[in-house]
Amino acid sequence: MRTSTAALASGLAATAAAAETIHGVLVFTRHGDRTTKHYGNTQQLTSLGAEQCFQSGSFYRSRYLSPESPTHISGIDGEQYTRSQIYATAPDADILLNTATAFLQGLYPPLNSERVTTLNNGTKISSPLSNYQYVTLHGVSASSPDAIWQKGDDSCPAAAAAQSNYKKSEGYLSLLSSTKAFYESFYPYLSAVYDYPAASSLSYAGAYDIFDLINVARIHNSTGPAKDISAEDLFQLRTLADQAEFNTNYNASEPARQVGARSLAGAVLTHLGDTVSKGQRKFTLLTGSYDTFLAWFGWAGLTEASPDFFGLPDYAGSMVFEVFSDDEADGQAEKRVRFLFRNGTEDAVELKSYPLFGLNKPDLTWTEFQKVAKEKGSISGPEEWCSICESRDGFCKMYDSQGSSSEGVKIKNGGGGGMDGEMIAGIVLIVVGGLSLLAAVAMWAFVNSMRKKTKGENGATSVVMNAGHHAKGWDSASSTKSHEKVTV
Ligand SMILES: *[C@@H]1O[C@H](CO)[C@@H](O)[C@H](O)[C@H]1NC(C)=O
Ligand SMILES: *[C@@H]1O[C@H](CO)[C@@H](O)[C@H](O)[C@H]1NC(C)=O
Ligand SMILES: *[C@@H]1O[C@H](CO)[C@@H](O)[C@H](O)[C@H]1NC(C)=O
Ligand SMILES: *[C@@H]1O[C@H](CO)[C@@H](O)[C@H](O)[C@H]1NC(C)=O
Q: Gene3D superfamilies per the record (predicted)?
């Protein structure tokens, strides 16, 4: 393992569950496999995507709802949906609503037949689709103030401005030129895309979009040429998309870039607060997109626990906040919060626990969790969001009284500045496996945020590489260091 925190993380999954009571959880899930994002609102969750989300719901059902599970949630009705115990929500967009629906179908599958109701006249009645359970799903319109919780960066002018600053950074400009020929080489695969009219229109500026078009085509299009793209090239496209999107959605010195994470933190505090205090709510499902995941990975210090968090989460990946208490403490001890992440839905993909906020602790007391989240700039509600976003449109109009403008609103905007201040632009060593064991090691110039200083357990500073992410470089002059294996 690369760092002490990563080592800590990997041990946690196994040790969790001993002598503790789980009171409730919040799951934030990414959508499953879908058609390409390129054509905007034509995108759809595919059957594969629905199956992934269903599998994810089933996975959490066996972990949290099954009475046999050592990690089942105390007091939850695992068989029959009980409204007061479950809250599920998704932005009002087909893919996300359907993601949540499929997840809930896995979480609460049809009731078994003994649960059918009997009418007064003796007739037995079951519901359609073999006793399907209708779990309430709250769709949130983009114009509602509640839209901030799952998609906090949307319609936020300050976030958009801060995010576009990435395109002015040295790291960006350097990759833009060093990867130009690589991107242009994919033109034969994208020539059918009407708004990429020539090879010259392909570059790192479209890193995610190009990766997405090719990735989707490789999964679904049996007639197009994309299936001929090598796994290695796809990996490069993904890695470049990882970097473009991570840096767009997180920058320690520009807190507005990660407004999505800070809003999500506010939602986590509110929903888990209900679980912690009243104990009625046991399972909360929120639904969103990779940009909020990446913003969260940066903002919550997860990249310090594992460099894997610089990468895009897989389809239907999910993060989980567990509220639990230590049984040994006899109900006296304060409730605690633990963070876990599951990078996809295949059976082999584990749900792993990671320390939050770079604090190197496996979990936090509820008080500490709240305190650190607030210090780092979690957003408490729409009024604060409007102020941070410098938005006066839509629902923000109602906070903008008599032209006094939102400058008068007190905001807490200091979040994010401190903990990751050491993030530096740098050069990364890449160690690769591949066809040849010795082969292909390389460097990227200016791969910001892939090289980080991390404090080891004994206070020693060590360098963490995003080693899993790179197979070849653009800067052949740098390849002299190529055979150094980076171990930290
Ligand atoms: C019992 O009541 C239901 C609902 O009104 C009706 O559909 C059904 O035909 C009734 N069965 C009998 C045996 O009367
Ligand atoms: C982060 O933001 C600072 C300040 O705006 C900027 O100098 C730096 O280049 C940014 N880093 C990236 C990776 O965009
Ligand atoms: C499959 O790829 C071909 C060639 O690029 C393209 O014309 C076609 O529209 C694609 N089909 C789908 C369903 O995207
Ligand atoms: C999730 O998986 C993708 C590859 O499929 C990888 O790039 C990324 O780093 C992984 N994230 C974590 C936190 O494991």
A: Phosphoglycerate mutase-like (3.40.50.1240)
